[in-house]
Amino acid sequence: MSPSKSGSTVFAGIGASAGVALGRAYTLDRSRLSFPKYRLPNDDETAREQMRLKTALELSDLQLSEIKAKVAQTEGPEHALILDAHRLMLKDPMLVEEARRLIDEERINAEWAIRRVVKKLKTAFEDIEDDYFRERRADIEFVGDRVVRNLMGHVVDLDPEQGDSIPAGCVVVAHDLSPADATVLMRKGQVAGFVTDVGGQTSHMAIVARAREIPGVVGAGRASELIKRGDLVAIDGQTGQVVVNPTDEQIHQFQEAMRRNLVAEQAMLRIRDLPTVSADQVHLALLGNLEFMEQVPSLLAHGAEGIGLYRTEFLFLERDTPPTEEEHYLAYRSVLEQMGSRPVTIRTLDLGADKVPRGPGARKREREPNPALGLRAVRYCLKNRDVFMAQLCGVLRASVYGNLRVMFPMISGLTELREARAVLERAREELTRQGVPFAPKIPVGIMVETPAAAMAADKLAAECDFFSIGTNDLIQYSMAIDRQNREVAYLYRPLHISILRQIEFTVKAAHAAQIPVAMCGEMAGDPMYTLVLLGLELDALSMVASQIPLVKRIVRNATAEDGRKLLEQMYKLNTAEEIERLVHQEMKARFGDVLG
Ligand code: PEP
Ligand code: MG
């Protein structure tokens, strides 16, 4: 935090959801309560305290189940699932039994016992390196806070109806926002933005805000203590800057940024419905990557021609048990209905490695020594047939609601593809036996994201209907670098000759077998590579919504022929650095105005 001479105060937080907002602060008391601490004099008192704890736990569970029922209707199942995870924590022996033990053995009151256990559990999570899991400390805190508030008779939740009484256009400021708060606040887009003292980019609030395109800053230190309700607050969700009571000049700057965003938005809308065809008439379909169903409207608004990758493992967000067939079905049906006749590529669960945002159950599963090389994705599904069957039956049932395609991740060879197809076949038989309808012809494809699959692409192409190249993993496995490890991130080079060759081989194999080939890794959405990918003759690129207009502008102003010529020059060079330099120069020279 830094006070400026002018009286405005600046906080440097973490940009959690891009965009600029200016509005009056609406502070929410989400700070930790000071709670009573006392020793219990006798057994009667410990018994009474156990009773109070039991009631508070039951009340907490009831509150969460009520919120869940409301948000399941309005927000979709994934957001309801996180509330289930919180409910599971309320029953977790590590929380409940330990608190009970402290009450009995140490004779301390229930509030104190819960706080002590929460503190201990949070410390255990602190040692975990993975950002995602570290941030799950916040969930333990939310759950503990709910129980303590209930013990003390405090109001726990924003009333979902109260969402309407939060003034439109305000910036919500709070110590932290729970998933329950997030679902209420993010409804109807009436909130201009939000700021929290704690949290990170993968906190639930941040994920929901990004999906809704509501600007937000997390990790802003003591913002909630120092910002008063009604203060004027300006936030930049890209840089993480928060300015309280900005000067006229600062207000002007923020308004300018908002105006620029609006102009960019309008420019985007102008090209949204134009076809993505190069100047030499090559169509490169631009599709969207999807994690949450809330992102569908944004994908459509940015001109996505379909969904090239639906990362369904996000249905597991913070839960302990796999989604049921019904949950899968409802989620996919909703996405298909929103997408109309556009293709929707449902990737089966890519669980395992660091891909599983697991809830409390994560502690029960042993971590593999090399998770990225372990039981992940289709390997995990083939070992956990019930999980796989539930998903495939859900997929099939949803298939009658739109243009559905199913895609298996991490395929490394034909045997795995055949096994996965056999499970799909079993799911078909099961539904047929039950008399449940499903689409007769569902294209079945694979992610090409292991070097093994890329080099066996000709064999694989003979037995599937489409490919999608997952460069995030293809690069990880080709370069032998853990994609989470910053120490080796310098080797993450999409233009490395080995990657280019694998892409080229895969595309040629697909086209020889007359099947289409897309790319859905981050490389697909980076406009710096668009000309190269056009030259490599991919049929589709799938990316986050915000990149679609930019990539479209490049495709419409480029020719596939130029892309092929550029590739020829690239192949003559020797190192990834040389190739990158050439591509950057070429792209700057041709599209400097678009790339900025
Ligand atoms: C990829 O590996 O490129 C990909 C798109 O899948 P994910 O990032 O989900 O592993
Ligand atoms: Mg992948």
Furnish the topology, listing elements before pairings:
Blueprint: E1 2-3, E2 9-12, E3 14-17, E4 20-28, H1 43-75, H2 77-91, H3 93-105, H4 110-126, H5 131-135, H6 137-152, E5 171-174, H7 179-185, E6 193-196, H8 204-212, E7 216-218, H9 223-226, E8 232-236, E9 241-244, H10 248-272, E10 285-290, H11 296-301, E11 307-311, H12 325-339, E12 343-347, H13 377-383, H14 385-398, E13 403-408, H15 414-434, E14 444-448, H16 451-455, H17 457-461, E15 466-469, H18 471-479, H19 497-512, E16 517-519, H20 522-525, H21 530-535, E17 540-543, H22 548-556, H23 560-572, H24 576-595
Parallel strand pairs: 4-5, 5-6, 6-7, 10-11, 10-17, 11-12, 12-13, 13-14, 14-15, 15-16, 16-17
Antiparallel strand pairs: 1-2, 2-9, 3-7, 4-8, 8-9
The protein binds phosphoenolpyruvate and magnesium ion.
The major pleated sheet works out as:
9 strands, mixed
The number of helical segments is 24
Residue windows where pLDDT falls under 50 for at least 5 positions: 357-365
At CATH's second level, what is the architecture of the largest domain? Alpha-Beta Barrel
What is the approximate shape?
A: globular
Radius of gyration over alpha carbons? 26 Å
End-to-end span in angstroms? Answer: 31 Å
Number of domains: 3
Which small molecules are bound?
Answer: phosphoenolpyruvate, magnesium ion
Portion of residues in beta strands equals 5-15%
What is the mean predicted local confidence, pLDDT?
A: 88
CATH class of the largest domain: Alpha Beta
Percent helix: 40-55%
Description:
It is a single chain. The protein is of the alpha/beta class and 596 residues long. It is globular, with a radius of gyration of 26 Å. Helix 1 crosses helix 6, helix 4 packs antiparallel against helix 6 and helix 7 runs parallel beside helix 8. The strands form 2 sheets. It has a 9-stranded mixed sheet with strand order 1-2-9-8-4-5-6-7-3. The chain has an 8-stranded parallel β-barrel with strand order 10-11-12-13-14-15-16-17, surrounded by 4 helices. The chain folds into 3 domains: 114 residues, Glucose Oxidase, domain 1, CATH 3.50.30.10; 110 residues, Orthogonal Bundle (Enzyme I, Chain A, domain 2); 285 residues, Phosphoenolpyruvate-binding domains (TIM Barrel, Alpha-Beta Barrel). The site of magnesium ion has 5 residues, from helix 18.
